[in-house]
Specification:
Number of domains of chain A: 2
CATH class of the largest domain in chain A: Alpha Beta
Radius of gyration of chain A: 20 Å
Number of helices of chain A: 10
Strand order of the largest sheet of chain A: 8-10-7-11-9-12
CATH topology of the largest domain in chain A: Phosphoribosyl-aminoimidazole Synthetase, Chain A, domain 2
Oligomer: homodimer
């Protein structure tokens, strides 16, 4: 099977069909028609074997996750996903692998009506780069800058589950099978909070998705906004499963673990009622974990008000 | 130096400033404002060490070339470049390398007023993925489909120089130093034919850029258009340097070598005068090399009208 046949069979046959795609896969470039008055929101993210995932990760999960992390970035801006591009580097053509990869990727693409419109495949060590584009009305994109002292700090869902699953996979902590089964999808198939991000457009004063870790990502918001952040450690939402292991694994996976792809955002105090409405509209919980303050940096305290210092604050690919 | 510092120092400081960039590097995604009535033209291409370039290629050339091959795809659609994204995978942070890489990339970005607005850096074996976006008025994108029997087949510049330089670099043919010096930039710093592509908008019936090789790329046009192509081998434009080595290296590097990034296009016979005007407007030559015919496939003949069969027809990364 050649590169062209691979593209034809697995990628050109992608399942989503949008009216705003003038020309999809198969020419020198895609041609897209953004609606009048809309701004484009564009992001790109790579996943490299051995850096972002272990060799035993199932291809179906890789396909899903590669798209999910990009949709998560769009969600953090409040954008509605529209189109995406895939650059796939493969050691060899393995049709079983590619088929499973596409199954994972396209299941998510279908869910959010986002169409694969281009990309390319190359030979090399396994890596996946996706570039996703979304749409938003002028002036409505939620930035990292915008948080003000007094704004509440909120997070969707629960944190630390992905990090705990990874720790188990790397053999650094042994979880009971039933617990790993619960946490594994949180690592391999994170749910991008696209609907929640869109709903936060006129509510949140700033937003980011939790990819590097809560404290690191909150640090990005604080720095971009020119303010500080105060987090109450025990208000950070944990899953039931994480909580059962809390005494052995501690808070740090939830505070600094990364890979959760929940939305972290700030909102002024008067937004409380809107947030309450959001909470009932979507299945996912929203927890207040602290407050933006004047100054800079991110401070963590426990419920007694004592400072808490996590062992690590986030992820740097070159560290 | 961390990933964040690297991005800040070398990429966020990029030199182009466009009014239609609402939000560039530094948030979860870029926000871009395409002008009303314009369609987006989007392409992406990867360069992997050991596949698309040899380890001794200078970083400045890599930076230039990675952007050039993407702008070349936009040129083949007739689009005006606007913004680009960079995904860079590096074995380690080497500031000297990154600085030279950026110098090459941004020299071209400046030339075509295309702004770096996002991307990411990761640790891994060296690979470069760029995604470039351009703008075009509705209905004006030049597609691969559109060639008709009787249309002339044209190519800009000369073909085979990049392949000959590569052959020398790989030690398969030894060129005199002076000749290699002339051909080397054709491999490392190909000129994307952006202005020529834009000028061809209402002239060309189809277009593609020569990346896989003349015959392979002409095959794409023929197939997409549902017609055949007849090429007169001796009309394929060669540089003076290539021509001096023609008796040893033959025609095949020009016919199938790839990496030339010239524009290959078709135009109806009545477009002759417009093409003449183009020829004088831009420094680069335009040569007619054959004619589209009914049927399918690409046939090559020599000046005597005898069929000519090249040893290879193009490039497949997995072959």
């Amino acid at each position: 099977m050649t590169e062209f046949e691979l593209i034809q069979k697995y990628f050109a046959a992608q399942p989503v069909s949008r009216d705003d795609v003038v020309l999809g896969i198969g020419d020198d470039a895609a041609v897209l028609a953004p609606p009048a008055g809309k701004h484009l929101v564009v992001t790109t993210d790579s996943m490299i074997e051995g850096v972002h995932f272990t060799p035993e990760t199932e291809p179906e999960s890789l396909g899903y996750r590669a798209l999910a992390v990009n949709l998560s970035d769009l969600a953090a801006m409040g954008a509605e996903p529209a189109w995406f591009f895939l650059n796939l580097t493969l050691p060899k053509i393995d049709e079983t692998w590619v088929e499973a990869f596409c199954r994972g990727m396209f299941s998510l693409a279908r869910e959010f009506n986002v169409q694969l419109v281009g990309g390319n495949t190359t030979r090399g060590s396994l890596s996946i780069t996706i570039e996703a584009q979304g749409l938003i009305s002028e002036g409505e994109a939620i930035r990292r800058a915008g948080a003000k002292p007094g704004d509440g700090i909120y997070v969707t869902g629960t944190l630390g589950d992905a990090a705990l699953a990874l720790r188990h996979r790397l053999g650094r902590h042994s979880l009971p099978v039933a617990d790993y089964d619960v946490l594994k999808p949180r690592l391999d198939r994170p749910t991008p909070r696209v609907r929640e991000g869109m709903a936060l457009r006129r509510i949140a004063s700033s937003a980011i998705d939790v990819s590097d870790g809560l404290l690191a990502d909150l640090g990005h918001i604080a720095e971009a906004s020119g303010v500080g952040a105060l987090v109450v450690r025990d208000h950070v939402p944990l899953s039931e499963t994480y909580r059962r292991h809390l005494h052995e694994v501690g808070w740090d996976h939830a505070l600094s673990g990364g890979d959760d792809y929940e939305l972290l955002f700030t909102a002024p105090a008067h937004a409380g009622r809107d947030l309450q409405r959001l909470l009932t509209r979507f299945g996912v919980g929203i927890s207040q974990i602290g407050e933006m303050v004047s100054g800079d940096g991110v401070t963590v305290i426990d419920t007694a008000g004592n400072p808490y210092r996590p062992a690590t604050r986030g992820h740097d690919h070159f560290a």
